[in-house]
Known about the structure:
About 35% of the residues lie in helices and about 15% in strands. With about 550 residues, the chain is α/β, with parallel strands linked by helices.
Amino acid sequence: MTDIQIAQSVTPRHIKEIAAKLSIPEDKLEYYGNDKAKIPLHIIDEAKLKESNLILVTAITPTPAGEGKTTTCIGLGDAINYLKKKAVVVIREPSLGPVFGIKGGAAGGGWSQVIPMVDINLHFTGDFHAIEKANNLLSALVENNIQSKSRSLGIDSRTVVWKRCMDMNDRGLRNIIAALGGKAGGIPRETGFNITAASEIMAILCMASDLEDLKERCGNIYVADTWDGKPVYAKDLNANGAMAVLLKDAIKPNLVQTLEGNPALIHGGPFANIAQGTNSIIATKMGMTLSDYTVTEAGFGADLGAEKFMNIKCRAAGISPKTIVLVATIRALKYHGGKPLKEITQEDTEAVKKGLPNLEGHIASLKSFGIPIVVSLNAFKTDTKAEMQVVMDYCKKMDIPVALSYGWEKGGKGCVDLAEEVIKAAKSCTVQFHPTYSINDNVRTKLEKICQTIYGGENVVLSDIAKSQLRKYEAMGYGNLPVCMAKTEKSFSDDQKRLGRPQHFDIHIREFEIATGAGFIIPIAGNILRMPGLPATPAAEKITIDESGIIEGLF
């Protein structure tokens, strides 16, 4: 069966039954039908966080289709529950862009899914729509102030950095001219759209500690400069109160369930090659409050997702994982070993061996955090025993625990070996993670430490534009922010064609952006799209609904 057929074959339990597993009183649930609910923020108990085992699931450098972090995350959560431990899965919400594009949804796969799969992959509880509206309200207020004569802040329209957003892959909106139509239409200028997952509002939602903090962060968004060079923030436009109102429900995590009837929290969805790439601090803390094991994931490979999870999210939240699960696949290792994508289903143990340096590189960078690592080999039906044995032997040689994961095929029971290794590793962890850099390091030093420690690179090279922008942002007082690297997810380097574990490379920073509301500075290496385009044959062409309301084609 396809993923959607598997999801539709299981009847969800009433969400109050799932809440009861986490000891959430029924009267605390805000129902969205019978199978979804939002949970109020006051459920979080900071005193319980240290008692919980936070498990981070990350991956080696992925192939275009991804290596199954979410599937592994869900299967692992089910397996821990199968072993009679209290576990909850905490993951991101899917963006409609990938759903209708090439990667598909983000609700897991096979028998390791969260349900209702269709709702989760589509409009869900409306969080993305609320983020989009809050983002675009700020855009409207900026345009209005530029047009205003009586209440003008003197915004130089050429300096506006704030863009509108929409949750869809639409390359035609990347760069546009706005405010056409004469005086009544405003002052024409170049602008564009970001995809909603790349909006700073999304990043803010996932960094906020509560509604008041959310409102303050929205007010701190840098939008433009005045004609005399002074920064203009959203609070100068009195925008943050109304933005927070639009986000009042979106800030609450969403409770759903796995196919096996175990609890899952889904909240927020920032991209990892642009933003921090992980679910909200609020949802993670809620999971840690309500369970003994909280299994979560971070987007793309460990060089992006795990690095930001540690240095940005965990640092800000004051939390630390007990184990890091590194997902690897035979197909990705063969790809990094030089096997063409069209041939990666063919047996080739030599290509697997040639691809092992990528796995080794991620293990080396993750070791820098000082947290126990477990490798999960996510099994596909095209993998052969000989290929899998190559990886198992390699991990044993490296003295890294490894387990085969059959979550897609068997659900929780297929991840029991992995769960046992993770539980063992978590029990052995008695330390907090070691950050890659000090928050007091200057931006250049932070970048160099990430480049050398996480990527295995040598130097960081700034363009003249990047140098100028960095001087400006440091003069504005933002040199002490963590950095959120924007680079390709397809390589340790900033060149997507350099697969495996490249050596002797520099990271070239083209420009900087600043996310003063989210609280990080964004160095951009290469051409990173904040508004993706659809592929030649988008998934949308295969998605349909029949006369009975049954949806087909989602995956």
